Amino acid sequence: MSDSHEADAQLVDRIRSGDDDAWRSLIDRYEGRLLAFTNSRIRDRAASEDIVQDAFVGFLISLPNYDGSKRLESYLFSICAYKLTDHLRREGRRPTLQMHSRRSSHPGEQSFVGGDRMASSIARSVERKQLEHDAIRDAITEQIQRWKETDSWSKLRAIELLYVVGMSNKLVAEKTGLSEQQVANYKSDFQIRLRAIIGRMNLDQAVFPELADS
């Protein structure tokens, strides 16, 4: 095992154990590369940031299925490619994701070519997206209810400002009187809990393509 592969394996183990610093390290290590990959294809920084954030959430959700046989970088790029495909479809550009490998500057990077898809393929994509949305909605509802039952109002307020209002960690910290580290911890905790809840739903792998072994 190479040094980088071993370092990634250790990082994943720490994330699985709930280590918030490990999650931050993962983002610091790969966010820039994923943003460059996404932004080079859609030339929209805000949309690229949303896609990359979705990719990291997708990684958390799929973490129970990640066995380390595939390089972490390639795995993250594959998830990001799926999220980018969904974005392009919603924009009406209807790309086709080419799943064969090709030489590129980024492992896991995929080619996108234009072309219409058959009606049945479009219908399956819409259905899968709805199931994905429903699963995430139900997981969020369950976690919010748990925090209400335990009077975790500071967490709820921070998460609302982060995801509903769209504030940065720094602004949420200023607004709530929390430290930026506390806000980051709440955010990481929320994402990890959503992953765990969705993992218990036993969804078909077609709902979250990133869950499938490749």
From TrEMBL:
GO molecular-function terms, A-Z: sigma factor activity
Pfam family, one: Sigma70_r2
Coiled coil: none
Region of interest called Disordered, as start-end residue ranges on this chain: 93-114
Signal peptide bounds: none
SUPFAM superfamilies: Sigma2 domain of RNA polymerase sigma factors
Swiss-Prot/TrEMBL GO biological process terms: DNA-templated transcription initiation
Segments forming domain RNA polymerase sigma-70 region: 26-94
Keywords: Sigma factor, Transcription, Transcription regulation
InterPro entries: RNA_pol_sigma-70-like, RNA_pol_sigma-70_dom, RNA_pol_sigma70_r2, RNA_pol_sigma_r2
PANTHER family named in the record: RNA POLYMERASE ECF-TYPE SIGMA FACTO, RNA POLYMERASE SIGMA FACTOR SIGZ
Protein name stated in the entry: ECF RNA polymerase sigma-E factor
Record organism: Novipirellula artificiosorum
